[in-house]
Amino acid sequence: MAMLGKRRPKRAPSGVSGLQGRQSDSRTAPAAPLEHDVLEIQGMAHDGRGVARSSQGKTVFVDGALPGEQVRVAVHRTRKRFDEAHVRELLTPSTERVEPPCPHFARCGGCDLQHLALPAQRRHKQVVLEELLGRQGITLAASPELLAGAGEGYRRRARLGVKVDADGLVHLGFRARHSHRLIDIAACTVLVPALEALLAPLHQQLADLEAPRQVGHLELLDSDQGAVLVVRQLRDHPGDTRRWEAFAEAQGIHLARWLGRETPDFQWLTPVPDLDCRVPGPAGDISLRFAPGDFLQANAEVNRLMVGAALAWLSPLVDGARVLDLFAGVGNFSLPLAAAGARVTAAEGSHAMVERLTENTRANSQGRDLELEAHQADLASPEAVRDLLATLRPRVVVLDPPREGAEAVCRALTEHPVPHLLYISCDPATLARDAAHLVHVGYRIVRAAVADMFVQTSHLESMLLFEFTGSTRPPQGAPSDG
């Protein structure tokens, strides 16, 4: 505790900054950037980097370059089969290049596609999904539908790093590109306005703390009841706790904290709010209560479009039918489908979110008849998933897994096929991997969509609707059983 808030001795500079911020590796990285010949960018990699060939025929991935451009680059990492580089001089710009709206672009590691016009970003994401499926031998009958909203001011949750440097200065922001170094963020064009408005006051608040080194990070969350700030505090400091409470009152926000290092305890420091958000249902909006730590899609507008698409695709199939929703969260898809007449069983790994889903079902059942049961289950266990499929015999399965995908679930679905499957994914590579398991045993893709959930970045959300057409075994939950 003796060093809390005090200035530490200066350290030697690391030499790591900007695009050269990758960890040095003598086997793969040169000691200094290497100049290349002028390169013509021939395409765009799935992660948004430009792709070119050097005069020696070696593939070069170029940060910040767009297809059709001529650039002079510097290589910041060499590998056996390819080089990684960044633009030193832009000679011939693409007609789709735009001025990035964010002043922190090219330093902040967040929005890596702000230099590309929005329509081109979205075309690129549609192509990425098609190409990754194509690598698995899967061809879509038509280009994926596009679900897209606003290009700025969309992100309703964010995690901001906090660091006190050797001079005692407090920094608040996101990580630099290719680095663990923190970039101070004074503005963020993708945050919803209510959260962006907190950035400047938070910088001042952190500077006014007695023990800023005891703050690990800050979480910002927007809800229909206003903004929420969650402070990750490593050790209690009563004086700073009072300062945080005064800050919340002055800003008119809800305040909570995680207190402790190894097993932090969650505490509300302002009156406990009933946080909720809204998703579309077949007869009007449905309210979903949630708490900090629950999974919540970052883009409320695009999430509504995804739920609407799920209802449009599935409503003809689910009235009176058994639906199994896996990775159900707090009911993002479960409750709208139950309101459409489905008999829903929702499975989720988090006990807290199962409780929240049960509460949401009870709250939304007033004035309507919803048939929905929520259960906790280990969805990484093929045995657990097989038991659910064998017991329930659903006509429709809905999947919305985390980034690592749902390989165990898809393997179980090859052994216990169902007539229809809706797979929502935040990682197109794991989606393509899992889709290959399904297509191999007789599923086929009948609808596909790309949801631009993370605008200005190379990340994308996808939706695939499968139907089982294989003849190796009869599907469970056939319509006559529904």
TrEMBL record:
Enzyme Commission number(s) from the entry:
2.1.1.190
Keyword 4Fe-4S appears in the UniProt entry: yes
Record carries keyword rRNA processing:
yes
Which residues hold S-adenosyl-L-methionine? Answer: Q297, F327, N332, E348, D378, D400
Q: Which parts of the sequence belong to the TRAM domain?
A: 30-89
UniProt biased composition (Basic residues): 1-11
* Alphabetized Pfam families for the sequence: TRAM, tRNA_U5-meth_tr
Q: Give the catalytic activity.
A: uridine(1939) in 23S rRNA + S-adenosyl-L-methionine = 5-methyluridine(1939) in 23S rRNA + S-adenosyl-L-homocysteine + H(+)
| Stated name of the protein | 23S rRNA (uracil(1939)-C(5))-methyltransferase RlmD
Query: Source taxonomy lineage?
Result: Bacteria, Pseudomonadati, Pseudomonadota, Gammaproteobacteria, Oceanospirillales
Give the gene name: rlmD
